[in-house]
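Model the whole thing, not chain by chain.
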Amino acid sequence: MGNNDNSRPDPDELLASLITAEEKGKRGKLKIFFGMCAGVGKTYTMLQTAQAEKSKGSDIIIGYIETHNRTETALLAKGFEEIPRISYNYKSTTVKEMNLDAIITRNPQIVLVDELAHSNTPGSRHTKRYHDVLELLENGINVYTTLNVQHLESRSGTVAQITGTIVRETVPDEIFENADEIELIDLTPEELLERLNDGKVYTPERSREAVENFFRKGNITALREMALRIVADRVDRQLHEYMQNKRIRGPWKSGLHLLVAVGPSPYSGKLLRWAKTLAYSMGANIQALYVETQHVLSPKERVQLDKNIKLAKHLGISVRIITNNDIVKAIVDFALKENITHIIVGKPRVRNFISMFRLSRFVNRLIRYSGNIDVYILGSDSLSKDKFRAKISIPPFTSTIRQYLVMPLIVMLVSLICYLVKNYIGYQVVSFVLLFLVSILALFFGTGPILVAATLSAFIWDFFFIPPQFNMYVGKPEDMLMLIMFFFIALLNGILTSRVRRQEEKTRIREERTQALYQLTKELALAAGTEEVSSIAAQGIQKYFGLNCAIILKNEQNQLGNEITHETRLKLSENDFSVAAWVFNHSSRAGKHTDTLPSSGYTFYPLTGKNDNMGVIAVNQPTVFTQGEEQFWEAFIAQISGKFEREFLRILAKNTLILNESDKLYKTLFNSISHELRIPVATILGASDTLLSQSYPEETRVKLYDEINTASIRLNRLIENLLNMSRLESGRITPNPNWCDVHDLAHIIAGNLAQELAAFHFSTVIPGDMPLVLLDFGLMEQVLHNLVLNATQNSPAGTRIRLKFYYEQGTLTIQLMDRGVGFPAGELDSVFNKFYRGKEAKAGGTGLGLSIVKGFTEAHQGTVTAENRRNGGATITIKIPVKVINPSDQLEKPTNSL
Amino acid sequence: MQEKILIIDDEVQIRRLLEITLSANGYKISEASTGKEGLTMAATGQPELIILDLGLPDVDGLEILKKLRDWYVKPIIILSVRSAEEDIINALDNGANDYLTKPFRTGELLARIRVAIRQSMGGDETPVLRFGTLTIDLVNHTARKEDELIKLTTTEFSLLALLAKNEGRVLTHEYILKEIWGMGYTGQTQYLRVFIAQLRKKLEDNPTRPKLLNTESGIGYRFGS
């Protein structure tokens, strides 16, 4: 074993202590006023300490104080601000509890919360007050609280033994151990009894009662010793930690790891508590192990096992579950792997010869295989009166009544046939036939029916077949022997087969689960987008767990959203969403079947990723998961969380890319637009300035006016394009189609661009039978305007520009042909990109014109392509799917022409 | 005689430009910078024509237009940066005589003002309208071009007459459809397109470059200039 022989601090432990220190810095500090029992003055001392703290200027308030009508205490409490309690209605009475949310909102430096072990009224957020305290600490609020020794989880058993009172309200040891400060309020038993007699604790008659029952001197002394020891242990441990931190060479044994084996026995609880105390005083790590074997747990055992595992978690012991039929091998293998130094197991009760044999075999093997690992075997005690069946696995009786009815019928039928042919085969062969029958039946029926069948067939064989017939008497001794053997073989056969089947069933379930996980992984791998992942996950949960679920994911602000993107049968209320939010923020489950907010109708599980939570899953779980299901569920959820995490990362990566792209676009826009805006403004400013400053001859003035005019037109065009672009970008372009005459379009373009087109031979070609087309006239006008303008800007004066329209089979084609410079080869695909400018383009222009052409065309579900013409120049072709009507169909016949 | 024109526009620069241009063309100008002020001045000043901006600081120009139309019968021309078709149609349907978008050419504005004032002045309907070589006889329902009778269907003539009577003014598709075909035909622009194309073939010198029946893209038609 890797025990440290030298006194160098273990780096892992150092790191752990650092992390603990860091976490403690962020959290609120917990101070516990600890006493042996009620009446020692914990609340009083707490108030006194608070008073002192307050006089130093701390912001300190009362969250919950129980004065028990003690005047001194009540007087002390008066000086503090107190958060009003909140009322809950429970079973027709009103119960006042601490108002947790009000305290968090008030956010004081220190809050006083009495009675840490208190159980809250159903309907409160948490079932236990210590949950409330933990939440306060998490919110960075320091808490002063009080606690009695009998309420400590690990001590409650011992206290019950000493005082005979079973304590129900307990606090996990973890909370006590992680408290930042413990102050022991100690009183000698004599002083306490005196106080009781003086009526300082209870009213006189309650005092008398109390002294007779709980407050016997012997009890008090024992409790006091326990309290003192706990605190002493803590001091010891703090010293130990201190030495470790300061690298002080000391005689401490470091690297002790305890392993405690738990099972479905009520005795495991005691074992756990004892192991915890041992680990505490040894300063050792501790974990628990449950080995799942083929033995099928009865419902009672299952409940006990759940209880034990829950207890272990309460005690701050982590529990691992391993499936192995050989318990000893499982324990030893695990111990070796985890560097366990001490194994603690319980000694099963010896009731008979078989269990004695089993025990000695178990112990012997454990000791033999465990090598240099210390093994502690704890005896059981008489505390538990419950009888648990020995682990000879007679499988449980789960058969239906139908099976019990069918079984004898089959046996009787076969017996009848045998009876008919008895003279041919002889009565002894019948026993084999019946034996064979019982074995076969064991394949299909449960243990109970098999027992019935075995008994019945033995009886039938004896009564009807073994001579003398028709009585139970067996004549020959060999027949007697045969009958006994027959009965046992039938029985064993049946039970063994049943067991094999059960084993198979288990293997099948395990295989199914593995298969399900594999299937889920496969499906998730193919899913894209969080919505699809959600619905696959929901389907999987429905399929393999038979549960409806709702998945709520976080939003971009890393907070839990409030929408469910997949189909779900669950109806989450406002309240449920706040439970989900709590689960998301605290990374722990809540809702039904848990300690937190159990009044909710659903159970909520966090979807935990590597760094933070992905969301929350709500399930309508009718019962708590069994251990096996729990493991399967956790694996399932882990798969889903992992996929969500990858999806979120992918979205993040994509957004980053988009951001980069838009950054690039912004720069281009900025460069191009600023140039295009400044040039015309500079022209207007310059020309008008010249005109204002001096009087020039008429001819010069006209030229300057002309420049101003041209610059204004250019500026206006740019603004139009920018506005159109932003309309496109915003996705607000929805064509508003109307019946158009393309002649109109062509005419308007020619009219609007008359000035630009004056230097060219411009012609439009429209076939005579051109129908009316359904288009957005305004958008198409922009498209053609930009196209024609682009041609005029890129063609030498005097060349031909041709605009051609034709309609063919549902498609309107518009072509613009020029004899200009054409497009650079290899850039034909990018000419419609935003801000694209030809390499040899003339100065001016933003590269927006053609991209608007493309945008508006696409808004019509059309396409636009560019190509160079063979003899120079370019052709731009627009194809738009359109509805048409023939003009002649719309005309009335000329009737009354005058 | 100097016609009074009221300008309701909040932009000082536009008002100044209009003031200079319109005064130079012999109009008498009054100015209002808000809608409310505009309403008061329209009531007290009795202008022959109002130029109204839609984007006013206090009340939306469209509201002012509606209020003015409760009692003011003379022409109102909208001058606005709003260029969306529905804005223009909306204004025309609410009683505006004409609509120009900023930036505008002053020459065009002057022409529209002249048309509007002439129409509102020449109150009595003449039975025969003349446009160049085209004569339209509203009494006998005939149209002649260079003295030659043009064969027109009843609908064609009604359409021509409606447009010609409102020479220079934009008539929206909806308005024309309602007037000629009736209420049930609003939205059926295909009729209009076909009949206009038909009329152009019969009346225009060059049907592909029409001079009489002009298209206002996405809004309607305007007869003449």
